[in-house]
Amino acid sequence: GAVVSQHPSRVICKSGTSVKIECRSLDFQATTMFWYRQFPKKSLMLMATSNEGSKATYEQGVEKDKFLINHASLTLSTLTVTSAHPEDSSFYICSAKQGPYEQYFGPGTRLTVT
Amino acid sequence: GENVEQHPSTLSVQEGDSAVIKCTYSDSASNYFPWYKQELGKRPQLIIDIRSNVGEKKDQRIAVTLNKTAKHFSLHITETQPEDSAVYFCAATSGGGSNYKLTFGKGTLLTVNP
User: Which tens digits make up the pLDDT trace of A14-67?
Assistant: First the structure.
């Protein structure tokens, strides 16, 4: 299957600071990438859809000014958590769409806000 | 929007037995149904998928069946092994083009006892 990387794998930041997470498709071009959030022992919750060269589409209830998404190239999408608070602590996973259907996931980023 | 229900939430089987996980979906326009396996702290991995023009698909010990009329699909794992222990998620597509996205079930924790 296709390979998707994500960086960093873990990050600890102080409340009020911003954190950037990168998602890369390594062996294919992805016009569409997705950002999910996963709470412990829970399912994947879609936060936003990132299309290369256009604005991201956010799911209902997700603050676009807090979770900034940029998809500047066909292999890179970034998620910036701005003014992070402890309640933003979570596991963030990106995925990239290859072809019309298949989504391949990155390894995830464990964010802890202190 | 799409709603995906998954059952059971937990499943425990003896090594060598079969395991079946069932999902239902609400959007009759859904046309792609992937299954993901997620080990603790790892990324979801695509293990098998099925498109709406097919009723059944098999890959070694894993098979998926789809009933579009009833809007349900199932994952079948035969000859289970301890390494099959993980959380399994079903998903269904909704939207198309730039509105395409996957909606996930809540997951099934499968435990295969040696």
Answer: 999 999 999 999 999 998 999 999 998 899 999 999 988 888 999 999 999 999
What distance separates the 2 farthest-apart alpha carbons in chain A? Answer: 40
**Are A99 and B34 in contact, with CB atoms under 8 Å apart?**
no
- Cβ of A101 within 8 Å of Cβ of B32? The answer is yes
CB B107 within 8 A of CB B46: no
Distances (CA, A) of B36 to B48, B73, B85: 7, 14, 13
Q: Tell me how far apart the alpha carbons of residues B106 and B38 are, in angstroms, rounded to a whole number.
A: 12
DSSP B34-83: EEEEE-TTS--EEEEEEETT-SEEEETTEEEEEETTTTEEEEEE-S--GG
Residues of A with Cβ-Cβ distance to B49 under 8 angstroms: 101-102
Tens of pLDDT along B90-102?
Answer: 999 987 776 789 9
CB–CB contact B51 A101 (8 Å): yes
Say which residue the tokens 């294919």 belong to: A28
Per-residue confidence (pLDDT) for residue B37, from 0 to 100:
98
Interface of A with B in 25-44 (CB under 8 A): 32, 34, 42-44
